[in-house]
Amino acid sequence: MATLRAAGITSVFLIVSLLLMPVQWLGVKLHAGWRRSLPHFYHRFVCRLMGTRITVLGTPAKGGVLLTANHTGWIDIPVLSAVAPVSFVAKQEVNLWPFFGTLARLQRTVFIRRERSKALEDRDNIRRRLADGDALVIFPEGTSGDGNRVLPFKSSLLSAAELAMGESPDGVARHAPVQPVSVSYVGLHGLPIGRENRPLFAWYGDMDLVSHLWEALGAGPIDVIVELHQPLTIDEAGGRKELAAAAEAAVRGGLVRALSGANSAAAEPHRDDDLLEALEQDDAEIDNAA
Question: Can you tell me whether residue 17 is helix, strand or coil?
């Protein structure tokens, strides 16, 4: 049954993707409005096809914004893209992946190169995208994890938050807002997903991508909670390291609440510091990183 499910989802996914890829390519070339909206609706379809049920808490910031999310693996891409029209900031190697690299380019991913000489050019590209009103997702952990905890945010990956986006009326430099986002995989077949089963959908370490995709598609429908936290700027945080720490704390708090069942599909996101402190004391792995 799992094999049939994976085969059916893969077949439909490939057919729809191949049909829409030329349309999106044309939209990017023509700078058409649907270059942003088509990937959003495409990934909403992909999530429904996979049986992924998404609960959204909070509201996406409008205009040019950096979304800083915890990273569990490939599944974060359709989930976050289904929540809002976004593009991603990714390492240059993703551009070279067969098929998925093409999908990334069509979603107007910003590829970051390792060469120091290219750093300024990449930063200027991000600046232009933010100035154009694009929402860019960045994963400040620098790698993907097992979905049970948030890894430390690397402040160097938030250097784009230092880019001046113009000046306010009083002549002060204006910086792009940064919105922390918690992505939590909480259910499998409508039942709470245990710590031991969450890696079914988490791609990390030396896992093979194709085999992991196949296993995840056959495992069954999952439930995801995406919490969009209050946006902040580097000016409000006081610096890049402080911004990274504040974003990390917000994302970790959302993950803890979601995995513990402290928020529900119908509730507004909780922001109770006492509740967060109590939950962190119960989870030794998270407590050390808090």
Answer: helix
Query: Residue 71's closest CA among 248, 282, 262, 213?
Result: 248
CB 82 within 8 A of CB 60: no
Nearest to 255 by CA among 182, 177, 206, 166: 182
Classify residue 161 as left (phi > 0), alpha (psi -120 to 50) or beta.
alpha
Q: Where are the domains of the chain?
A: 2-287
How high does pLDDT run on average in the chain?
Answer: 84
Output the DSSP codes for 46-71. HHHHHT-EEEEES-PPPSSEEEEE--
The CATH number assigned to the domain with range 2-287 reads: 3.40.1130
Segment (H or E) for 179: strand 178-188
| Residue, of 247 and 215, whose pLDDT is higher | 247
- The pLDDT of residue 217 is 85
Question: What's the longest Cα–Cα distance across the chain?
Answer: 64
213: Cβ contacts below 8 Å, ≥ 6 apart: 74
Contact predicate 67/86, CB 8 Å: yes
Residues in CB range of 265: below 8 A, 6 or more apart: 55, 225
Q: Are 200 and 99 in contact (CB under 8 A)?
A: no
Q: What are the b/e assignments for 242-280, b being 16+ CB within 10 Å?
A: ebbbbbbbbbbbbbbbbbeebbeeeeebbeeeeebeebb
Q: Residue 209 in 3-state DSSP? A: helix
